[in-house]
Every structure is written in structure tokens, then in C-alpha cells.
Design goal:
alpha+beta; four-stranded antiparallel β-sheet; eight-stranded mixed β-sheet
Amino acid sequence: MLRLTTFLFFLLPAILFAQPKAAKLTVEKIMRDSKWIGSSPANPFWDADGDKLYFDWNPEQAPSDSLYFISIKNKIPQKASIEQKQEVVNSNSIQYNQKRSAYVYSKEGDIFYKEIKSGKTHRVTKTVNNEFNPVFSFNDKKIVYTSNQNLYGWDIASGETIQLTNFLTGTDKKEKEKLSDEEKWLKNDQLQYLKVLKERKDKKRQSEIYDSSLPKNELKKIYIDDKKTQGISISSDGRFISYRLYKPVAKRKLTIVPEYVTESGYTTDITGREKVGEEQGSSQLFILDCKTDSLYEVKTDSLSGIKDIPDYIKDYPKEYEKLTKLNAVRPVIYTNASWSPSGNNLVLDIRSQDHKDRWLALWNRDKNNLKLLDHQRDEAWIGGPGMRNEGWIDENNFWYQSEVTGYSHLYSVNITDGKKKTYTSGKFEVQDAQLSNDKKYFYITTNEVNPGEQQYYRLSIAGSKLERITTLTGANQVTISPDEKTIAILYSYSNKPWELYLQENKPTGKPEQITHKAQSEEFNSYSWRDPEIITFAARDGATVYGRLYKPENAKPGMPAVVFVHGAGYLQNAHKWWSSYFREYMFHNMLADNGYYVIDIDYRGSAGYGRDWRTGIYRHMGGKDLTDNVDAANYLVKNYGVNAKQIGIYGGSYGGFITLMAMFNTPDVFAAGAGLRSVTDWANYNHGYTSNILNEPFNDSIAYRKSSPIYYAEGLKGHLLMCHGMVDENVHFQDIVKLTQRLIELYKDNWELAVYPMEGHGFVEPSSWTDEYKRIFKLFETVLKKN
């Protein structure tokens, strides 16, 4: 009889053989074989009627994602047919009437109207023109939409369409005929001595006077000169129309990005963006009273602080003195115009063009002036999550988000008495908010539980009671159904990629997983690390959050790598699947090869409030750099990492910090890899850079302190630079200029790897593989020297 132990001995190899072989991580596997990871669902949206949830997904590993859907009754994902793709209406694109008995939407450049009870859909337009932005107005009797920079109204009862605005380019001022003295004498002479000529002129004049006295059914002409109309909106009663006139800069100087590898064999030029500091266009806001044909221009000269000079100008005494004497109204940008439910009130969201101020103001139609409701001043720049979230709770109360306390929170202001109500408070951020259909609740997403988590709540407006609805640890990104009974949740954890869940929209709801990632057995066989979330004190006492990857069999004297995330204002030390998934896998591979890896949310990162967000103001490469240096010191102190065997790497903003580290703290980092790095901030775009560093011509101090090209002489260690030659974001010019600087400085131990067909974000697996093989080789060669 076969003994049990013998049976198990023979069976054991078979069991082991049946198990999937544990994946061995290599650069080739991580960067080249994307299929083994699988496909996560993305971009979920409900259809207009709330019956189906649509999302992008690719479980079949096709060349690109397909549109899938589930129904509330049948929760099995199905691929949408071509007909379903064409017919689906995204609930995010519809506008309801006040009773929510009908909605309107635009689709493929035409307007549609649907009655919910009958289910009948009416086609409002069918033209070759592009009609868009439909809304209900005239007390829900008309549908108003935009076409060819004008508003049109479709009467629901009669089907009649009328034009509501008549914007015309040019000017209504007729230039007077310019006559020479000789011509003037001749003209007067003819009229004085030729009777018939004078009689005809008088008759013509009388006819013009008579015609002008007759009632006319003519739409008011509004001449806009050489400007462009933007943001046209109409009040719900149809009486008022607001719009912006934008005057672009007459001559814009745009950058050129050469493309060397082309089908034609010729180098072609891609027209790029402008550089920071280029002159910006100007905006005006007008309001048309359709009842009286009166046209009002909104003036901002009464706003508190509108003439205040930014503090940084004090570093330039002559300029400060000049601006003080000038005492000018600063140019502004009108970011939003919100009409109240009745159409009687209008709240404007106004930002200063220098990014320092935000005003919420009520337009007084009787006096054509502004009543200040809220003013936030930030000597760095106005920003933070949810700063575009705002709207009407009722006719008298307007809600919005503000960073006035240092964290983005939810408020409302009464337009009658100016009293404000605070709905949330504390050292956490409200990252998203929307008002419920019945306007009794806010649905909000916050990181109150932990800076590295996103949880979803319901907040009572009347009692400010907060109820938590999501429970899964990590990130819960919620999309609410139109009837608000169900939520779709994109959920992930640190080592678990995104999956789609459904749940009842209430605190007792239970999440039900809908999708399951099409991961390979090999992917699942690897034990992906759940990086430890750690904190340490920076040199100024601030608490820094980070992710830590530890090697197995850790012991003192091992090397380490500091990873610097890109984008600046981005969070990566969190408890969900990172958008840097390749880097996450690379960090697992580094840990397998005996490295500690730390990845921190340095100063300027998202998720930690205003002071953290603006900690890089006027000095990029200041506290954001020292935070990463302090991270390296933390590893030395707490884990015995060899202080002479620490590397650093990152892309975009992370590449910028890598260069600053290698140039300004060369004794801390023995090796660095800067990928698609900014080397001179004066070369970058206006929207991002002018927030943080102002403009080169008026704050040269900030640009001089913040650009790596000025510090290249400090390089001591080994530097790898990688850059795509068709980068339309951080131009290849940046790395070329730094390369020339390193040559002129006779620097050693650096190399440049270029990728002729890649932009800012690589798309070819071969490019990713080549880049990360170089990074790994750099660390293995330099950081593991005996």
C-alpha cells in the first residue's frame, strides 16, 4: 500500500508544475509587453435616461479600447454596436427644464429635445452649421442654442425659430468723407447755385427722417469690431443675454517643433505654442437687455483690490514706484456667468489676469455695477481643487469652493445680505462637489480619511450632516446616475488596477464589482508590492508623505533611488493605482534587484492644501528639491542606505528636479536620469508657468533661481538625459540648450539619448524599453560600485 507521504511526494511536483510560473521582472517585460497587465475600464458615463452605464474597455487586447455598457438590470458588460454608439446620449451633455420633465442636447452639430414621460424625441435643427449649447429659456417655452456666434430660440409649442442676437464684425461708426478744401468749396458752390440738386438732397433727407420714425421689426445690431464672442448665455426668463468679447493679440509669436522622420523624407515644422510672457488677449463682458435693447458693459473698477500691486513687484523698486503712481485697474478674465433660477440675478466669477485674485460679484442691473460677494487674494496664485465648482442653491444663495482657509472647502453666500455659510472645514480637501437634483444635498469627494484616499459623501444643505457612502480603501471616483439612485465607482488600490463597481447611492449601499481585469496568469503570479505610505519631517518641519518600496533581505549599506513624479501639481504617494504604472512596476523591479525606492509628494504636489500647493512660488527647485534631498537623508537615517549610492530620476517636472538635484546637490545623488526635462522655464508655456514664476520680463529673479541651465556647472555625478525630438510640451530645444552648456563647461559623465519619433509622452514600446534599459544600466553601473 502506497503510504500517504509517498503519495504526496509524487503529487507535489505535479502541483507545482500546475502553478503559473512567478513572473521575473525585466525592463523588456515591463515596458514592451503591455498585454500582460490587462485593461482597466475608463471614462464611465450614464446614458441620458439612466438605464445604461457606458465605459471604455479593452478586455480582448485589441489595438484600442471599445465602448462597453451594462444595464441596471443586466450587469454583464457588453460591447456596444455601431448603432448603439451612434445613438447613445451622454447624460453629462443634457440640460433639463425646471420641472425635469424634458431635456435638450446637441449631437453631431444638431439640437434635440426629448419629453421624458412620452419618450418622444424632437429634432430641433438639421443643418450643415454647428449648433450647440442648448438650454431652456423664456420660462421653459423656448430652447435657445448657439450657431455661427449668435443665439437662436426654438418655440416648443409652435416650432418657430427666431434669432435672438445679431453680432456683426466691424464697427457701426461710418467714417466721414474726408474732403480737401477745394472739394468742400466745390460742394457748397453746387448746392448754392443749382436749385434742382439742392431740392433732391432735401427730399432725400426728409425721406430718411420719415423712414427712421417708422416702427421696425429689426434685431438690434451689435458690432464687435475685430473681437470674438465667447460664453454667450441667456437668463431663464429670456430677458437678458450675457457674452464676452475677446480681443486676441494682433501678432502672436509661436514656437516651431521640427519633425525629422517623415513619410516625405523632408523635415516638416509643427506649429507649437507661445512661450511664457507673450502678450495675452483682453476680455470685456456685456449684458444685453432684450426688453429695452439696452446694452451694458460690466466694469470692474469698483471691485476691492482691483488696483492692488502684487507683492513680488516690491523686489523691483522702480517698477513698483511706477505702478503705484499709475494706480491702474488690473486686467481680468471672466471665467463664468451664472444666471439665477428666475433669471433676475447674475453672479460673475472674475479672475485677475495676473492670477492673484478671484472675485464673485453680483451684477446690479438697475445701476449697472457690481456687488462684491466674495474676494480671495493669494499672493502666489489662485488655485486648488474644485475652484470651478459653483452654482445656485436657490434664488438667493450661491454656492462655491474656496481655499480661503488654506484648504479647498464648500461655501455659499446670500446675495441679499452677503452672509456666508460654511459646509465643510478642516485640514483636508473637497476635491469635487455637485448639487443634488432636489437641491437638498451636495455630493462631494474628499481626502478627509487620509490624504492618499478619495471617498464620496452626501452632505445635507439644511443641517450640514455628512454621510459617507463609499467604503473601499483607496480611490473611489464616482459617477452618479441621472436619478441619483445609483453610483458607478472606478476603484483601485495601490497594487490593484482600476475596476468598475456599482452601488446604491446611500451609506448602507454595498459595492458590486462589475469588471474583472483581463490580466495574464504571469502578471497575477507576481506579488506586486503594496508600497508603505510613510511620513517624515522636512527640514522646515513640514510633514512629507511618500511611498516606500523595500528590497527583500534588506540590510544596511544597500543603494537607493528617489523617484520624482511629473506635472508638479500631481499626487503620487497615495493608496490607488498610479498613473505612473510603468514606473510602479520598475520600482518593484528595482526592489527585486536590491534597491530601496522612495517616491514622495514634494512641495507643489496636489492633495495637501494651499500652502503645499504654492510652496514652489517664485522658486521651483527650492523646497521641492530639498524635500527630495530630505527623503534621501530619511533613507540613510532610518534604513541604513549607503549615502554615496543614491540615485534620482523622473520625467517632465521630475526631470527638472533631477537636473536641479544633480547640479545643486551633487554630493547627495551619485547618479540621475532626467527625462523630457524643463531646463529653462522661460521656454515653457504661459498658462502653467506664469502662475508660479510670474513672467520673465517682470520677475527675472524667479526665473534665474528656478532654471537648471544656470546651475549646470555644479554637475559632479553621472547624468543621463532622455528627450523626444517631437516634444510639443517641453520642447527638444530645452535639452539642446543644456547640452551645449555642458559641452562649454567641459563636463564629463553625462549622456543624451534622443528619440526621433516621440513626443512628451512616449507611445512606442521600443522607446520606453530603450529609455528604461539606460536608466537601469546607469543605476547598476554607478550605484553598485564596490
